[in-house]
Structure formats: C-alpha cells, structure tokens
Amino acid sequence: MLQVTRSCLSFWLLCVLLISEISTRTSKSLKGKYVKLSKTPTKPDGQLVSIVDIMKRPLSQNGKLDLAFVMDTTGSMSSYINSAKQNIREIVQEIVTSSGSDVRLALIEYRDHSPQDRTFVTRKKDFTSSVSTMKSWLNSASANGGGDTPEAVAEAMYQTTKLSWRQEATKISVMISDAPPHGLVPSEESSFPQGSPNGHDPMQIARDLAQKDITLYVIGVEPPILPYKDFFMALAYITGGQYVPLSVPRLLVNAITGGAQEELSLRKFQADVQREIKQASTAGGSINKQQIAQTVFQRLQKSGAKSKQLVRNNKTLDGPSADAKVLATKQSMAEVRKVFKKGTTSTPFRGVGGIYGALDEVMDGDMRLGMSVGMDGGMLGGMLGGVGSGGPLRSMSPGAMIPSSSASEKLSTKESGITLEQINRLVEKGTARLPSV
C-alpha cells in the first residue's frame, strides 16, 4: 500500500513539473504576441468581441500611436469633414485590431487669416484616448469661409508641433487639404504674398516635425490641390511621410488607417537606418542618402523583412516627383518660391455633361458642394462659381471638375517585402535631423 502511495505521488509530481514546463515555454513563445485583457472588450455596436478575435491581434512593435488630424475646414471641405465624423470609430477600431496599438487622437482645424476669414485661424484639441471625445470635436467642426485660394497651412503645421506627443509613441500627423499655404504663389495672394503673417514657415516646420520624430501624411484632395502637389509631396517627404491622392471622401478612412498601419510597421527599421546615418556622419564629408538607403535595404531584403504598405488601385503610391525632391532640399518658402513650378492637371476629367453623376460619387451621394456655394449663376454656376466668399473654386474649370477614375478608386493595405522607397523615406527623415544636411 505504501509503495502504491509513493508511486501515485511520484506520478502527480511528474505531472506538475511537466505542466509547469509547458506553461513556461508557452509563455515565452507567446510573449508580446497577444493583447492582455484588462476589461470586457466590445465592438462599436456593443457586441462582445470573441476571445478568438482578441487572441489573433498582434501587438505593434511600438505599442503606442499618437495620431493627429489636421483638417482644412473651409467651405470646400464639407464632404471630407463628414467622412471623418462618420468613420472615426472605424478608423480607430481598424488600427487597434490590426496592430493592438494604444491610440490617442488629436484634432487641429484650420481656415485662414483675417480679413480672408474672420471666424478663426486654427482650433487645437490636444490628444485624447477617448474616441467619443474625438467624435464630439469632429461633430463641432463645420465647413465654412476660406476667402482666397491659400489657407493657413503654416499655422496648422505650427500648432501640430505644440501637441503633447508621447516620446515613445509612433507619431503621425495627417493633413487633409485642398489648398496651398500663403507665400507659395504670390500672384494668387490678396493679403499675404510673402507667407504667414506670423512668420511661420512650412519648410522649417516640416524639419521641426522630423526632429520630433513626427511623420506627416498629406491627403491631397484632388483635383483642386493638383497644381500644388509637388509642394505637399516635399513637405511629407522631409518627414518620412507620403502624399496620398484622394478624390472620393468615403476612402478617407482607408487612407488614414492604411498610412497608420504602414508607419507602425516601419518603426522597427528606424534603428537600422539611424545607425547607418550615424556612421556616415561620424566619418565626415557629405552624406550619401542613396547609398545609406541601398545598404539598409539590401540588408533587410536579405533577411526577408516585411512591412505594411498603403496601395492605391492595388499599386504602390507614387513616390515624390523629381521636382518635389528638389523642393525638399530648400530651407524656406523664400527659397521654394524661386524654383516652384505650379503643376497642371494631367488626370483626365469628366466634362460638364457628366457632372451630376460624378458629383454623386465624389461627394458620396451628397450634393454638399452644390449647396455650399453661391447660387447667383444657377445650380451649375453655383457649383463652379465659388465657395465661401464667392472666390473661384480652387481655380477649377468645368472640364476639370471630377476625376474620371473616381468611381473605381480604391485604397487598401497589403503586407509584402520592405521596399527601397520606404527606406528612402526613413533616410530622408533621419537626415533631416542633422543640421548640416
């Protein structure tokens, strides 16, 4: 009997040791891969999220994301403001589901300086972790005013630097714009041809953003922004961000979530890039950005490194144009003005005959554009005649109203091997921190 008891004890002791070993190994193998449940998770509609869904969520490399919306809220932007209002919960849910990130949100609205706009220049709402709070801010936003073509872009960028960004977070500023800053094309100015009356310079601020490790994404509302596209590409490029073309408001959610997912996935490669930049800087002489990018890219490619990528119509986004790269080397708007060439609309557009059907798609089934403009010239004259104070609708002609491809436009995110263009952006951002570059 004693022998049997000893055998049983030995058996149970062996089981305990085995279970303990399995638990330890499992814990180590799963470390960092799953989200710890601190409260009962629910979906936006109130339904419980299944444990299977939660366990499938990977934690991002960084774990924290600060995402600032910088929105032009002048008269021509109502559809994009409404898209943000309607989809803010989906935007956050998608980012959290795909990356497991701790997300905070901020909002900066901007219009124009007096006398062009007498409502406000900028309105800043600092970071919150509450989606409901962010939604209430967006609900309070409305499209109004604007005056002449340029808007207070410089002031909005400056306010972005004053937000309470977390040092350890992935930091992304998403600017949604359809108009240039003051001081880019003096001939279009009626008040501030030399730039911001407060002395804020977008080129200098872009480098300040890069210094603070803040990535700028510019969502360019096309076609109005097309003549200034190279300039906005340059701003984004300096900070390691991207210019995202958009002509359909309902795709705003895809643009924001895709950009956030891509930047979260790239953060883990920043250390490799910074090491190469530091070595080149220590060695003295000029820094060869292309060589640094190639070195890092080849090393990561051999290791099979993968990243998320925001794609448009299943193709990677266009990188900065040659002119945009030239602009990115300039230190001030005064230097930019000497070389900036206003672009032209190269995308085919529907003529007036197809305007009503096209507007229904571009404005997401809402004729807000027609309702927000002066109606002195009738319905069509109102749509083409002006916004807010009655100025030209971003210099758009009737034949250049709506992109012919808007109905089929698609933005999505895919995972694939790291690209040289992505590393080029990280190198540009890293070298922007060096005063000699």
TrEMBL record:
InterPro entries from the UniProt entry: HMCN1-like_VWA, Thr-specific_kinase-like, VWF_A, vWFA_dom_sf
Residue span, VWFA domain: 66-273
Subcellular location: Secreted
Keyword Ion transport: no
Main subcellular location: secreted
Keyword Membrane: no
MF terms in GO: protein serine/threonine kinase activity
Assigned keywords, A-Z: Secreted, Signal
Pfam families hit by this protein: VWA_4
PANTHER family (alphabetical): ALPHA-PROTEIN KINASE VWKA, DUF659 DOMAIN-CONTAINING PROTEIN
Leader sequence residues: 1-24
GO CC terms of this entry: cytoplasm
Protein name as catalogued: VWFA domain-containing protein
